Amino acid sequence: MTQDFTEQNRSLTLGRGVNTDFTATEVNKVAYDKGFYSALLAAGFDSVRFFIRQGWSPEFYRPAVEDALELGLAAVVVPFSMYCWGKESFVEWWGEVAEYYRDHPAELVFEAINEPKMAGHPDGEEAETMEWYSACIQEIRRSNPTRLLAVGGPHFNGVRLLTDYVTPKYLSYTLDDGTGFADDPNIWGVFHCYQPKGFTHGSVDQDINKDHPGWKEEILADLEEADAWSKKHNKRIYLSEWGTRINHEVRHVEEYTAFMVPELARRNIEWSYYCGVFNNAWPYGLYNSEWGFRGVEGVVRNLTGKEPPAEVPPTNQIVNPDFQLDLADWNSSEYAIMGTADGQGADGTRAIRVHVPFVHAPDVGREMTSSLYQQYESDWLFRVKGKVQANKYIIQLRESSVYRISFYARCEAGSARLQIQLGHAPHNEPVIWTSDEVSIDSKLQKYELEYDHAVPSVSNVRFSFIFLDRHSEVILDQIELRGRRPE
Fold first, then answer.
1. For 185-203, how does the pLDDT look when each residue is reduced to its tens digit (9 = 90+)?
2. pTM (predicted TM-score)
3. What is the radius of gyration, based on Cα positions, of the chain?
């Protein structure tokens, strides 16, 4: 029997929300870690929003959902729809998600689709996109008749698309009980606001007032239009994404957030800031695994009204540590060949296979090094180009921190030896630390090492596995690098 959340929904608010953009899509992100939630909760946030991925079992996201709810955070889950798979497949998958979470508390909110154009829904097919929304709502309502659903328009969830398309005309479905969009008190309208876009998406440091003198008026126009939609359809409104890169001088980001928050409150608009967590290099991210909210304290205070914590829980810095995104963000040297190993990781998950070929060092005329490594890539599409870099690199080492390094490994045949190495990116020069040799045998097991970083902090680090035996194959999975601060 499904739960009726109607009474709870009437008073449910998402409060001061934040996007926690961990692994779910195709871009290099860290994997989910409960420490993210603990840090964001301590900073004063009330809800989290995160992406889920079509084709992945809803069970995969259960820890991220239930940890939030147990900590007292509301949670909004939203997919990137995979347009190429077709509507039937997408709707069926939403049905599986909805059925799996049908008995979870009302504080779990479903948002139907994130930015349909990014997901592959092209211009000129807006009505068809809304048919996807209609079909999803009908499928979700079979198992969750009163759960809060957040529904936006086509394209990139701009406010004009909300006004034009999130209407009874385009959401013309009828449920089994004869009701439809207009009758459903548990549907909220969704929009995104990244005004002024030259500032929020600009990769070069800008002065928001000098470079965008009309920025407040641009924002207010969007908020007023959203508020008008809310009044017309008698439904709440949810700004599920707004925010800016923090490659600008932080005082401009502080001014921007200080303006937005009270204007949203004035119109009773629910919101989620983009973003809290992605990886340490992400220019929008407030949170850093090593430095917490250092440098953006004023921004966090504007968002939550609370002083952020000076220290945060240790969280993993490694991107794609469990190879759910195949080989993304991992590199290998000339004498190491990467490949995926489905079903061979911890708990039967995907892992990476590294093959070290048999090569005689004298034949190549130089020293042979076989390595698998991860580091910040300077040609990354989303890199910060302005003057304000402030630790915007993926892997960092903080002075006086002790780092716990762990991974699962086995050798395909016999045994093999490897070492962990930390060096200055991008060329691993100079090397900072090399571990003792670790012997790997044919049984998959977890290995743990520690490194005490007693020298000055390093902002851009290469993390490497160095393979010492030629003609070997090693399986690796769940790679972690977590720092522990001195008490």
1. 999 999 999 999 999 998 8
2. 0.94
3. 24
